Automatic annotation (TrEMBL):
It comes from Frisingicoccus caecimuris. SUPFAM superfamilies: Alanine racemase C-terminal domain-like, PLP-binding barrel. Transmembrane segments: none annotated. Its cofactor is pyridoxal 5'-phosphate. This is Diaminopimelate decarboxylase. It holds the Pfam family Orn_DAP_Arg_deC. GO terms for molecular function: diaminopimelate decarboxylase activity. Residues 281-369 form the Orn/DAP/Arg decarboxylase 2 C-terminal domain. Keywords: Decarboxylase, Lyase, Pyridoxal phosphate. The keyword Lyase applies.
Length: 422
């Protein structure tokens, strides 16, 4: 599928007059339309709710848009809980799916009335000790162990993953929590990441639905929601097929009708915790080509670096690149497109066929809306960029300013030694 940016060169040239590159740009229209599709895909389920994984794009303006579209938040840390609270998410509109969790994070989650999704059997006692008493609603995360396979092969290796309860621990955990007064239960699992098949959620749903039926028989627990978590992928590469969320919702519905309804569990609510699918395609990293270098290979140096987008350096991930205004030009040059870090893995693309790039060209790096800005860091003293929202009416709004040297120096105890720069 040809990848088309959500902005034109003309629009970008206007935007960069106001905001210097590099910056992350988000497409409000795309975010809203996609969120509506997700809700439509699961509208057959009365209690359906998408809890947006805050870690993917932790920005209050983005959270507010998603809230208006009916989403909750999925948090994994204290600050994500704080951000949800500040954006007026409360109670069961917040899921707390964390691991190796500090006690004060559990306290905060409980204070907000969030649903606590326990990562481990030993956390039952841990949370009880921290809170004095377990909340009446609890969720548990299942790790199925071994490999997780679909028809097209091994998707992931849960047996190597640090998350979740074993199947046996779930039964014991539910019983233990019932003894401690827990009344309402949920079940969660995250078995594969960035899946590019409509089969993933339905297959995961079948596992969780069957497990829920067994758990109900074994423990008599009241299972009220099943959380399919995240993992629905997006087509980063033009050769990849986009997931069809309507087909995914329908696949989950069929599993629901086959497994849960006959077992008397037809009232169970389906929850999701998608991050990438909700935001990934609706963000671009906008940078400018500032250097060209002709040595053993041809290099284009950008004013952005891996601190703005870590995925290519960290996972070797493909992110599509469009040269603004050269959308239809022949890709008759081969470049490594790099950032400025003193790390040779700071390359947005290696041996990429692109149109001829001229100095000053605006470079659009696709699919940076999730796990993009969020994974940013300050190595080499690089400062985090701004985040800009392209609004539905075509206007723009800065939803996070760029860092300045003062931000970078702010955590020194002796920041006065840097006074001349502040
Ligand atoms: C990261 C994460 C998600 C979101 O994953 P995506 O791949 O962005 O959909 C959801 N739930 C949990 C517990 C996570 O850790």
């Amino acid at each position: 599928m040809k990848k088309v940016p959500f902005v034109t060169k003309e629009q970008l040239e206007e935007i960069v007059k106001q905001y210097p590159t590099p910056f992350h740009l988000y497409d409000e229209k795309g975010i809203r339309e996609n969120a509506r599709k997700v809700n439509a895909a699961f509208s057959w389920n009365k209690g359906f709710k998408e809890y947006f994984a805050v870690k993917a794009t932790p920005n209050p303006y983005i959270l507010k848009i998603l809230k208006e579209e009916g989403c909750g938040t999925d948090c994994s840390s204290m600050t994500e809980l704080m951000m949800s609270d500040a954006c007026d998410f409360s109670g069961h509109d917040i899921m707390f799916s964390s691991n190796a969790t500090p006690p004060e994070d559990f306290e905060m989650a409980a204070r907000l009335g969030a649903i606590i999704n326990l990562d481990d059997f030993t956390h039952i006692d841990f949370v009880e000790k921290v809170l004095g008493k377990l909340p009446e609603t609890m969720c548990c995360r299942l790790n199925t162990g071994g490999n997780f396979e679909l028809s097209n092969g091994i998707m992931d290796t849960p047996g190597e993953a640090k998350y979740g309860f074993t199947r046996e621990q779930l039964t014991e955990g539910y019983k233990k929590m019932m003894d401690k007064g827990v009344k309402h239960f949920g079940l969660h699992a995250f078995l594969a990441s960035n899946t590019k098949t409509n089969e993933y959620y339905p297959a995961l749903a079948r596992i969780l639905f069957k497990t829920a039926v067994e758990l109900k028989e074994e423990t008599g627990a009241s299972i009220e929601f099943i959380n399919l978590s995240g993992g629905v992928g997006i087509p980063y590469h033009p050769d990849e097929q986009a997931n069809d969320i309507m087909a995914i919702g329908e696949g989950v519905r069929q599993a629901f009708e086959e497994i849960l309804v006959p077992a008397g569990l037809g009232d169970v609510a389906i929850f999701t915790e998608m991050g990438r699918f909700m935001l990934g395609p609706y963000g671009h990293l906008i940078a400018r080509a500032i250097h060209e270098k002709h040595i053993y290979k041809e290099y284009i140096g950008l004013d952005a670096c891996a601190c703005n987008l870590m995925r290519p350096a960290m996972y070797g991930s493909y992110h599509h690149i469009t040269v603004a205004g050269k959308e239809d030009a022949p890709c008759d040059h081969v470049y490594d497109v790099t950032g400025s870090l003193c790390e040779n893995n700071d390359k947005f693309a290696v041996d990429r066929k692109l149109p001829k790039i001229d100095m000053g060209d605006l470079i659009i790096i696709h699919d940076t809306g999730a796990h993009g800005f969020a994974m940013g860091y300050n190595y080499n003293g690089k400062l985090r960029s701004a985040e800009i929202l392209l609004k539905e009416d075509g206007g723009t709004q800065m939803i996070r300013r760029a860092e300045t040297p003062a931000d970078y120096f702010a955590t020194f105890d002796f920041s006065h030694i840097m006074d001349k720069y502040l």
